Amino acid sequence: MKNDKNLNDINTNSFLNTILPSNWIPFIILCRLDRPIGIWLTLLPCFSALIICSDGIPNISNIVIFSVGAILMRSMGCTFNDICDYEFDKKVSRTCYRPLAIGSITLKKAITFLLIQLILCSSLLIFINHNSKLLSIILVPIVLIYPLCKRFTYWPQIILGICFNWGILIAWSEVTNSITLNTFLLWFGAIFWQVGYDSIYAYVDSEYDKTIGLKSTAILFSENGKFFISLFYLFALIFWFLVGYNLKLHFSYYIGMTVILLHFMWQIINFQPKNQKRNFYLFLQNIWVGILLVSCSLTGTMFIK
User: Fold this and answer.
1) Residue 285: Cβ within 10 Å count
2) Digit-coded pLDDT (tens) for 147-170
3) Using alpha carbons only, what angle is made at residue 42 by residues 19 and 7, rounded to the nearest 5 degrees?
4) CATH code of the domain in which 16 resides
5) Number of folded domains in the chain?
6) CA geometry: angle at 11 spanning 6 and 16, to 5°?
């Protein structure tokens, strides 16, 4: 199957490319700092948890710690993913120009870079409480397991959803020193959301993945993607509505949830299993779901005071 340069996911116009030394750029691309969408999709659900369990505006130190943590953990996961998959990446349009796939970084340098990221992540542990430390340590092997899942299961998106949204658990633990039913409801909702939008993302690569023997929900669902993605989005909304109901959040929270519902409907209407460019675009639009989730969490908690 011929690779299409138009589907290449590397941002050659990134601001970082213009201000950093040229020998840094392959490492920036390796850990996806040139494409911050993944950082935002990791961070925004975490911000929502921080806001809700803080009854409004979280303190600055927590915002900084969890922002840095999201950047480092997402970057580390991307680096490890490319180390595991660089032979596969050479055969897929979206990934064939990544640094390890084209040889602009050696495997040895990538592994060294991964270890540096792990050390930086570990340094954040000194700033959080004991329970949050334990949760952070538990996350590391889950992050490292994810790249291998696509070799053995059609559901790697679930593992990714668990990883991406683990910050909800850590944030809640850090603020309240406990994890409650509502913590899990917010987390489960975020996981279902992730499985939905990452399934749309997986359709971009599905034809290539079939050829090289990798698995994903997109391959499993095939032409039935609209139905299953709709189902995941519906469950996400149900869990998020339950959070608002249990915590008696302000009515504005439900207005935000309604807008998210409309956004999900727009995604489903426009989703086409065979349209790679459109599906990539729809995936990117999920940043607005994250922004809406944070916004209605903020108004829902602050206006009840």
Assistant:
1) 15
2) 888 889 999 999 999 999 999 999
3) 65
4) 1.10.357.140
5) 1
6) 165
Cβ atoms of 147 and 169 closer than 8 Å: no
Helix (H, G, I), strand (E, B) or coil at 34: coil
pTM, two decimals, is: 0.92
Distance CA 30, CA 89 (A): 12
The span from the CA of 34 to the CA of 15, in Å, is 8
Query: How far is residue 272 CA from its own chain's centroid?
Result: 22
Angle at 93 between CA 164 and CA 266, to 5 degrees: 55
| CB contact at 8 A, 189 and 239 | yes
Going by the DSSP 8-state scheme, the letter that residue 128 receives in this structure is S
Q: Taken in order 295, 176, 192, 255, is the CA torsion positive or negative? A: negative
Backbone angles phi, psi at 213, to 5 degrees: 85, 20
Biggest alpha carbon–alpha carbon distance for the chain = 58
Q: Which domain holds residue 74?
A: 5-302
What are the tokens at 27?
């490492």
The region that residue 179 occupies, defined by phi over 0 for left and psi between -120 and 50 for alpha, beta otherwise, is beta
Residue 1 has what pLDDT? Answer: 44
